[in-house]
Design brief:
globular, alpha/beta, eight-stranded parallel sheet, TIM Barrel
Length: 290
């Protein structure tokens, strides 16, 4: 699985001012730190960047490339900034993201084609977030058809089914999971990705890591190809790199409906969390204590 570091973000209290002030050192330190923790790609999120966005994206791409030799995701809604970033990239980059809205596809498909760039296809349509797996599937089919018309290879598309918070939209988490269960049949030539940390938004800080890790294991079972993650969660990286197969096995057996007898309290906590993510238990901030 490809891991994408999420930490170079204009919303960061540390890096936001560095981006705005064009201070390279904090950004380069963060890029190196994420690379050292095993990230395969880095996401560069400069936000909407309506003013001087092209200049900012070009600067941050060059700044990061001076520090690490890792491919990049260019994360902004500013089309000019995306193109400026693609021009500056030394390695093939990924546009993050293109939604299923006609105006976004019309604006960015030609850019992706011109630079032979891959892109994250965000399954967000004109009516907003899809309600279930079927709506996600319809949006994915529409995006693939329009990308084909634009001459973009299916292998350049990373479909993102939109992970939503378990604390407020538990049924939507199941919709995302169900979409991933049919992904390989629906889009066999495409790849999949997600913004993993979204699943724990709104939950107590001390619970976020176990939710993120467990949901990643859920999606891994259904063939997730990549994820945008917190590079500094060592346990999460260990799970992906095959160093915690005990936890992966316990979660996957639970997903298969087995009555797993946990060997440790840690396994108990992950099994409980898997059942919440599956909708078998109702989410509450105290689910681990029940």
């Amino acid at each position: 699985m490809i891991l994408i570091g999420e930490s170079i973000n204009v919303m960061s209290k540390t890096l936001g001012p560095a981006l705005k002030g064009r201070d390279p050192k904090p950004i380069q330190r963060m890029a190196v730190a994420q690379a050292e923790r095993g990230m395969d790609y880095l996401d560069l999120n400069i936000g909407p960047a309506r003013k001087a966005g092209a200049e900012l994206m070009e600067w941050v791409v060059k700044t990061v490339q001076e520090a690490v030799d890792i491919p990049l995701l260019l994360d902004t809604t500013n089309v000019e900034a995306i193109e400026a970033g693609l021009r500056a990239c030394k390695r093939p980059a990924v546009i993050n993201s293109i939604s299923c809205r006609p105006e976004r596809m019309e604006a960015l498909f030609p850019v992706a084609k011109r630079y032979d760039a891959s892109f994250v296809g965000l399954l967000l349509g004109v009516e907003g977030v899809p309600r279930d797996a079927a709506e996600r599937g319809a949006l994915a089919a529409d995006m693939m058809a329009k990308a084909a018309e634009a001459g973009i290879p299916m292998g350049h598309i990373l479909l993102d089914p939109i992970v939503l918070p378990i604390s407020s939209q538990q049924d939507q988490v199941q919709g995302c999971t169900e979409f991933m269960m049919m992904f390989k049949e629906l889009a066999p030539e495409c790849r999949s990705t997600c913004g993993l940390s979204n699943v724990s938004n709104g939950t107590p800080e001390e619970l976020r890591d176990i939710i993120n890790r467990t949901y990643l294991m859920v999606l891994m079972k259904h063939g997730l190809d990549s994820a945008i993650v917190n590079a500094f969660d060592k346990d999460l990286v260990d799970i992906v790199r095959g160093r915690r197969n005990d936890l992966v096995e316990a979660v996957h057996r639970t997903l298969d409906g087995e009555a797993v007898e946990p060997k440790t309290q840690e396994e108990t906590d992950y099994i409980k969390t898997a059942k919440v993510l599956m909708g078998e238990s109702l989410y509450s901030h105290s689910w681990l204590k029940l």
